[in-house]
Each structure stands twice: as C-alpha cells, then as structure tokens.
Write a structure and sequence with these properties.
The strands form four sheets. This protein has an eight-stranded mixed β-sheet. Strands 2-3-4-5-6 form a five-stranded mixed β-sheet, with no helix packed on it. The chain has a two-stranded antiparallel ribbon with strand order 7-8. The chain has two domains: 3-73, Golgi alpha-mannosidase II (Immunoglobulin-like), CATH 2.60.40; 98-291, Vaccinia Virus protein VP39 (Rossmann fold). By secondary structure, the chain is α/β, with parallel strands linked by helices. It has helices at 45-49, 101-116, 132-139, 151-163, 178-188, 213-225, 246-261; strands at 3-4, 11-17, 20-25, 28-33, 53-57, 63-67, 75-79, 82-86, 122-126, 143-148, 171-175, 194-197, 202-204, 210-212, 234-239, 264-273, 281-291. It is 28% helix and 32% strand. The two termini are 19 Å apart.
C-alpha cells in the first residue's frame, strides 16, 4: 500500500523531469537530482531557473550546490507542530526526508493512543539521522532512544527536538554503531515498545566487516525483534535501497515478527505529490510496518 505525504504546507514538489525534482522548502526553492525521474518536465524552464540553488552532479561522482540567490546556511520548516532545520549538504541532502511525514503521522497516532490509555511508551530509533522520527514520537509523549554513529547527526537531532519545543521530553542521544548498541541492549535486558530503523545500503559492522543490506538485514532485524516488549506497538523498517521491493521488507517482518507475535504487516512506497497539475506522485523510498494487536 503506497502512502502519500500530502499534508505539508512548508514543503512541496513543484515539478519533476529529466532526472531532477523542483522543491519548495519554506520560501526557498531548490533543484536536486532524482534518478527515478525518467520523464520530462512539465513546468517551463523559466520556473526551473528561478531557484535559490541547484545541485550539480560532477562527472567523477559527488557534486556541488550552485547558489543562484541569497540562501541562509540553514533555515526552519514546520510540519504541524514539528519543526526542523534545513541545511543543504555536499551530498545533495537537506537534513530531512519529507516523505517520512506519512510515517510520522502513523507513529504519532499509535503512540498517542497508548499514552492516553496510561501506558509509558519507550521507542528505539536506530540509524536516527537528524531525528524526524524522534521528534514525532517525542511529540506524542514517548520516551525515545535516538541512536546514530555520526556525532553531527545526533547533534542536529537534539537541535530539532529543542526547536520543536520538546526539550523537556525524555530523549536519550546515543552516538554509537547501531549493531553494537543492539547487542549491548540485549545484554542489559532492556526492552522497547516500538522500534524504528532506516539502515544504510552499505556500511561497516561492529568489527569493521562490510555491511550489505541484502546480506545482513534479516539477521539484524531478528536481533532487534528480541528487544520488543510483549505488548509492543510497532516495528517500522524504512528502505532507500534501489531495487529492494517493499514486498521483500514486508516479508521479512512477517517471517521474523508477525509469525511469532501476531499482528499485521503492511508495506509499500513512500510518496510525495507533485503539484504541477498532472496528478502524478513521486516515489521516494519504501516502508514496511508491523503493528501489534
């Protein structure tokens, strides 16, 4: 089941085409590459050229931002009561994945129901990046453990939590390898009511071994599932790995969690609407969700 993040006011995909997407982030317009966009542009070149910055790929790999007008080093955008810093990076990213708003809404709904019934909810956010999911879960009243190996990402996550007025909420910020952290949590006997993870396609494991998503994902999720409480709310698996179908990730959660714990599994693409009048949507990644009953 595809889900569309269509409740944004501060963000929109204005047009897509020729391997690029035209986005509005607050009052600033950026043009960035998207390899999935194999169709042609709809809006005129005059619209596409009226940007604050465009990301230009280098022939040798990587790329750079070409600034066409005054652009702050970072600025803020809002999604309902959630606030985030936006900062273009040398890897074409901006510090936020707006298609994740569909997941935020889903998590907030699930956690809020549990909290309102009197439960204390503990969430583990692995590969937490800049904390979009952490902010969402904290806003719903959960205690969150945010884990990322990059110090800069953890710092930005904390800034986003404070920016959203959630500085008094209970969030643990952990700079650690996700695999090592899970092993330590299992030894400590800690449990979580919900787990979120967005593992990279490639990386290095706890002992320096090469991590490849297709080869290591099942074993890692099997370990992570041991951290779930008996009445856990959910397990959310995001993927931005090209070619990895949401049916595959859904099957993994079915085999490793649903068969043991019951509940339901859904999966699909995370999408954004394109506001150029064509009615098309832009696929931006995939999700697989297990929900306890």
């Amino acid at each position: 089941m595809n889900v569309i993040a269509e409740k944004w006011d501060d963000y929109e995909v204005m047009d897509t085409g020729n391997g690029m997407k035209l986005e509005r982030w607050g009052k600033y317009i950026l043009s960035r590459p998207d390899p999935q966009v194999i169709w042609t542009k709809t809006l005129s070149e005059s619209v596409w050229s009226n940007v604050s910055a465009e990301y230009i790929r280098d022939v040798s790999g990587g790329g750079r931002w070409n600034y066409k007008s005054s652009l702050p080093s970072k600025w803020t955008i809002s999604y309902d009561n959630l606030k985030f810093y936006i900062e273009p990076t040398g890897f074409k990213h901006t510090g936020l994945f707006p298609e994740q708003a569909s997941n935020w809404d889903w998590m907030i709904n699930s956690i809020s129901k549990a909290v309102n019934s009197g439960r204390e909810i503990n969430v583990l956010n692995l590969f937490g990046y800049t904390g979009g999911a952490t902010v969402a879960c904290a806003s719903a009243g959960a205690k969150v453990c945010h884990v990322d190996a990059a110090k800069g990402m953890v710092t930005r996550a904390k800034e986003n939590v404070i920016l959203s007025g959630l500085g008094d909420k209970t969030v643990r910020y952990i700079i650690d390898d996700a695999f090592k952290f899970v092993i330590k949590e299992l030894k400590r006997g800690n449990k979580y009511d919900a787990i979120i993870m967005d593992p990279p396609s490639y990386g290095r494991g706890p002992s320096g071994e090469i991590w490849k998503l297709e080869d290591n994902l099942c074993d890692f999720i099997a370990e992570c599932s041991k951290l779930l409480t008996e009445d856990a709310l959910f397990f959310l698996l995001n993927s931005y790995t090209t070619g990895l179908s949401p049916v595959v990730t859904g099957n993994i959660l079915t085999l490793l969690i649903k068969q043991k714990e019951g509940g339901i599994v859904t999966s699909g693409d995370l999408c954004l609407p394109v506001t150029n009048g064509t009615g098309i949507i832009l696929p931006c990644g995939s999700y697989a969700r297990w929900e306890g009953l």
